[in-house]
Amino acid sequence: MRRRCDVFGWVVCLVALLALAGCATPSLDMSGGRIEPAGPDGGVVIGSVLVQAEQEPPNSWFNRLFGRKAAGFVYDFEIVKIDGHDPEGVHPYADRYELDAKPGEERIFVARLPVGTYLFKTFRHEGLSAMGGDMGLTFSVAPDATRYIGRLFLEVPRRVTMGAPFTYTVQDARDATLAAVHKQHPDVGQQAVNAPMQAR
Question: pLDDT by residue (tens digit) across 35-59?
Fold first, then answer.
């Protein structure tokens, strides 16, 4: 009887782990595998994220005493598919993706996504969900098209504290980005159309 309970317990744990794995949020960067060509049901987007921590420490003694160095964090970005019925991407069944980036290291991504509009919704410091901010940048995926959506440049304070200000811009780094993508996926991006992310 005891052995049967042990086996049952292992089976329950295995099922739970498989369920959790199935619920994992997919990455916006799909460049690790084969990228399917754009088609009627979906398009390809290429872009990058660059997080930069300020070089000079802030003058506030509070920040020096209690702040943590921003350069030591990994930053998680949430991307969600939106539409007219759910413009903020709050629906629990909306398509969601994530992307992580380290300060000072440009994170290039390539993704084949269903046709529609997507929102770079938020970013968070990994492990510190209360520290981060709302982004509000959108990009569109068109059928039978490959689009370059730009580089999201995020500047954060040198030291991270609650409510720390941040700034972001969308930059054009097309040539360098497509050259890097071409090394891994020679057939991707050759006919990419510029369609930079837009602030709402």
Answer: 999 999 999 999 999 998 766 555 5
Report whether 48 contacts 107 (CB < 8 A). yes
Strands (E), the chain: 42-53, 68-69, 75-82, 96-101, 107-114, 116-125, 128-141, 146-156, 159-160, 167-171, 193-194, 198-199
Reported as a single tens digit per residue, the pLDDT across 4-23 is 445 545 544 444 444 444 45
Buried b (16+ CB within 10 A) or exposed e, 154-176: bbbbbbbbeebebebebeebbee
Mean pLDDT of all residues in 68-96: 86
55: burial class by Cβ within 10 Å (0-12, 13-18, 19+)?
Answer: exposed
Type of residue found at 163: G
Residue ranges of alpha helices (H) inside 23-101 are: 61-66
